[in-house]
Specification:
Blueprint lengths: L1 E6 L17 E5 L6 H12 L5 E7 L5 H15 L7 E6 L2 H11 L2 E6 L8 H6 L3 H8 L4 E3 L12 E4 L8 H13 L3 E7 L15 H22 L5 E6 L2 H12 L3 E6 L4 H7 L2 H8 L3 E6 L8
Parallel strand pairs: 1-4, 2-3, 2-5, 3-4, 5-6, 7-8, 7-10, 8-9, 10-11
Antiparallel strand pairs: 6-11
Length: 301
Amino acid sequence: MNVATTSASSPSTRIPPRVDAAPPCVVIAVAADEPDDVLRRAGARARRWQLPIRLCAVIDAEPGRADLVRTIAERLRRVWPDDRTTAIDVRVGDRVDQILACADEHAAALLVLGPTSHREGLFARIFAPSVPTSVMRAATCPVVLARGDGDDITSPDILVATDLGDPGWPTLRAAAAEVARTGGRVTVLHCIEPMAVLPPTDMILPQAPQIDDTEATAMALLERAVDEAGLTSAELRVEVATAGAAILAHARTLGVGLVILGTHGRRGAQRLLLGSTAEDVARDATCDVMVVRLRDERAAI
């Protein structure tokens, strides 16, 4: 195994990607107090990408670096006894900043973390978010929050949610790439928020025709989007529902191993006003969740 060490002169400084960087890799962020099952599950997802894997661990002070290197190396030997290629990158500084810097420096194609370790209330999410939440908001590459036990992906099936509002359909393209790695079935879900189909409050009209027209328009857009993304065999679903609750319900009913959805990475006041379906799903899903960065300025799904 290869061991690298990095110190942070400024915890808030992001290091730009190197122009002469090595081929892309998968970065798995690990913590000393995480159980082995977190690494096993993260590794199961990461190895599907068939790219070099780099374990990134962060400590807040230099004196503990050597002990952390030994701890991570022992865990690696215990979890993957036959592994000879995974690199260990131990850094000193702010954990979120150093995880993101590691991903940037090594041109990470995917960043994998364990799940959120606690339930965050509204104000905690805004002013003191957990490490997975902060990384999910700021990372430029896809982020997977790995859940479950063991080295195997329990189901190759994927649920991908899209709001149909982002150029290039990044969540759909991510799903197409993932299903090529894992096989399995893909279900694509688009939710129409209930308020979007309600008539003005001073009008008493039957709502069914309006809802039907909205769903039909959305389905036509969804069919075009999945065709452009190469997901022609996917099952398509459009429904009037609150997105977060619907995504979680469909994930449970379908028994998928992965949910893919997008985020705009909003923070502070914007997040207080608009919320984030991606973060709600990431906290409450029982399967792995992949969060893909969206590029426009509209609200995330």
